[in-house]
Amino acid sequence: MCSERRWYLVAWDLDRDDWRTFRVDRITPRPPHGPRFAPRTPPADDLAAYVSRGVSTRAYASHAVIRLRVPLEEAAERVSPTAGTLESDGPDSCILHTGAASLDVLVIHVMMFGFEFDVLEPAELTEAVRTARDRLARSLARAGESTPRTPDGADRTPGPRSGSAAAR
Q1: Which one of 41, 62, 138, 143 counts the least CB within 10 Å of its CB?
Q2: Is residue 35 included in any domain, yes or no?
Q3: Sign of CA dihedral 49, 51, 55, 58
Q4: Is residue 8 part of a domain?
Q5: How far apart are CA 119 and CA 66, in angstroms?
Q6: What is the count of structural domains for the chain?
Q7: Contact 47/81 with Cβ under 8 angstroms?
Q8: Which residues, in sequence order, are CB contacts of 120 under 8 Å at separation 6+?
Q9: Considering only CA atoms, which of 17, 16, 12 is closest in space to residue 43?
C-alpha cells in the first residue's frame, strides 16, 4: 500500500509470530537464502485499511475515537490515511479513529483538522481538551491586558518608523 509517498508491506513476522506492517524504505534487501514463505490468510480483507489503522492508530500509545461534525467526504479531504481512519456516521458526521504519542498531542492533532468534533473515547481526552481550552483562554486574557511588543521590546504602535531604517 502507498500512503503519502511511503510504501508499506504487510507480512508475517516469524520472530513475532504475527502480522506486521513494514515501511518498505526501512527494509534491507537480502538474497533469498532462507526457506520460502508458507501462504497465509491475510489479516484483513481490506489491507489498505489495515495498514492505515496500523500507521495512524495502533502505532501510538494514546488512541481516540472522535466524531467529526462534517460529512465523510469533507473529512477525507483533510484526514490522510496516515492520520486516521474514517467511517460514516450519517450524512453530516463521521467517526475518526486515530492515535498520537499523548493525549495533549491528540488534542492538537484533532484541532488542526479545523472541524467541530465530539470526543467519544477515551474520557480522559475530554479533560485534555478542557485543559487546552483553559490554557488558551488565559493566554488570550493576558494578551488583552498588555501592549504587543516586538522581540527588541519596542511598541508596535502604528506610526512613522524611527531609527536608522527610517533615514534610508
Answers
A1: 41
A2: no
A3: positive
A4: yes
A5: 5
A6: 1
A7: no
A8: 64, 65, 66, 67, 95
A9: 12
Scanning the structure block, which residue is given the C-alpha cell 502505532? 59
In a domain, 100, yes or no: yes
CB atoms within 10 A of CB 122: 15
Q: Cell 490522510 maps to which residue? A: 80
Rounded Cα distance between 45 and 82, Å, is 19
For each of the chain's 168 residues, which pLDDT tens digit applies?
Answer: 555 577 877 778 888 888 877 778 888 877 776 667 778 888 777 776 766 666 655 667 789 999 999 999 999 999 988 888 899 999 999 999 999 989 999 999 999 999 999 999 999 999 999 999 999 999 999 887 766 666 666 655 555 555 555 554
Q: Which of 90, 98, 95 is nearest to 75 (CA)?
A: 95
Q: Which three cell numbers stand for residue 39?
A: 501462504
What angle (nearest 5°) sits at the alpha carbon of residue 98, between those of residues 92 and 102?
130
Cα(96)–Cα(119) distance, rounded to whole angstroms?
A: 10
Domain residues for the domain of 49 are 2-26+42-144
In a domain, 99, yes or no: yes
